[in-house]
Amino acid sequence: MTRDFASAKLAAPPGDTWVGLAQGPLPVDEVRVWAARPSCGAVVVFTGIVRDHSEGRDGVTALTYEAWEAEATERLRAVVDGARSRWPEAVRVATLHRLGDVPLSEPTVVVAVSSPHRDVAFDAARFCIDTLKETVPVWKREHWSGGTDWAACDHDVRPVSR
Q: Which listed site, 3, 34, 36, 122, has its alpha carbon 20 to 30 Å from 14?
């Protein structure tokens, strides 16, 4: 399922790829259930959540994410395509990112990979989150006790490579 806009709630697609952006909470439990398949002995789910600090900033209270939505959606799909080209044994792959305001301890990103064996699921999930962070045009604004500003760890967005 690919959307060119952030939906309020992401619904599981009928196929084996789930990408999307959401303004509201991410369906982490639904992603895990969706990823499980009878042919798969492994489902790896990575969930990134808002923590109370960042590099050089204590007291973080929330994050706000913005994105170039049409391009971010295409890049999320490219991340999945890149994982599938490296690990063809991956059965279901999801890459979802939240936009808007996200309070402490709530999920900002979820990646899931199912496969017959754990090594593929772990390796492909790690590739997906690392590549997503480097290639998807999503920007993070941090809110903390001393103010608000764009995250200090922001970097240029590179193309997805296979």
A: 122
In a domain, 59, yes or no: yes
pTM of the model: 0.89
Contact 157, 136 (CB under 8 A): yes
One-character DSSP codes across 105-137:
T-EEEEEEEEESSHHHHHHHHHHHHHHHHHHS-
Angle between helices 118-135 and 69-86 (to 10 degrees): 150
Mean pLDDT by groups of 10 residues along the chain of 162 residues: 54 96 97 98 98 89 96 97 98 98 98 98 98 96 88 62 62
pLDDT of residue 2: 38
Structural domains in the chain (count) = 1
- Given its phi and psi angles, is residue 12 left (phi above 0), alpha (psi -120 to 50 degrees) or beta? beta
Alpha helices in 18-146, H assignment, sequence order:
28-35, 69-86, 118-135
For residue 83, give the CATH number of its domain: 3.90.1170.40
The pair of structure tokens assigned to 21 is: 């952006």
State residue 6's pLDDT score.
62
Note down the domain range covering 88: 17-147
